[in-house]
Amino acid sequence: MRRGSHPLRVDRERLAVEFGNREIVRQRIVKEYLPTFARWKEEDVQAILAETPNVDPTALATFIEKYEKLFDKRYPYVNKVASAYLRDPFGLHNVMPDETGPTPGQGPRASLTTSIS
């Protein structure tokens, strides 16, 4: 087999040339359009976003507001697990969420306090 005739080597060389050409085209596009985008005003950008379907210009503010509310909520089960170091180690297996569901072999459970007591 001659040098350079191996199929993987040929594919590698072809892909390297193709990638190089794509990079040249990308750089040309960036140089051509970057000055255009840099001159846009905030009002123009907001107007374009408002006219674009499925785009919410207030999405960032909405997300931040809902994200901050996550830290205001209290999660009772997480608090119970976090405070487990205060409990008797033999009673830790009874730390469960407050829900009325059957427990294995014991029927329905009324609340956490009855299962720990």
Describe the structure.
By secondary structure, this protein is mostly helical. It has a domain at 7-70. It is 56% helix and 3% strand. It contains five helices and two strands; from the N terminus they run ααααββα. The protein has helices at residues 7-38, 42-51, 59-70, 76-82, 112-116, and strands at residues 102-103, 107-108. It has a two-stranded antiparallel sheet. Strand 1 and strand 2 form a beta hairpin. The mean pLDDT is 75.
List the keywords.
3% strand; mainly alpha; two-stranded antiparallel sheet; 117 residues; 2 strands
Topology record:
Elements lengths: L6 H32 L3 H10 L7 H12 L5 H7 L19 E2 L3 E2 L3 H5 L1
> Taking all residues together, what is the mean pLDDT?
75
Q: Which strand order do you get reading across the main beta sheet?
A: 1-2
Give a count of the beta strands, DSSP E runs of length 2 or more.
2
Shape assignment: flat
Distance between the termini: 81 Å
Q: Strand-and-helix sequence, N→C?
A: HHHHEEH
Q: Would you tell me the structural class of the helices and strands?
A: mainly alpha
Helix percent band: 55-70%
Tell me which oligomeric state these chains represent: single chain
Beta strand %:
under 5%
Radius of gyration: 31 Å
**Biggest sheet, open or closed, and with what strands and sense?**
2 strands, antiparallel
Which residue ranges are poorly predicted, with pLDDT under 50 across at least 5 consecutive positions?
none
Helix count from the secondary structure assignment: 5
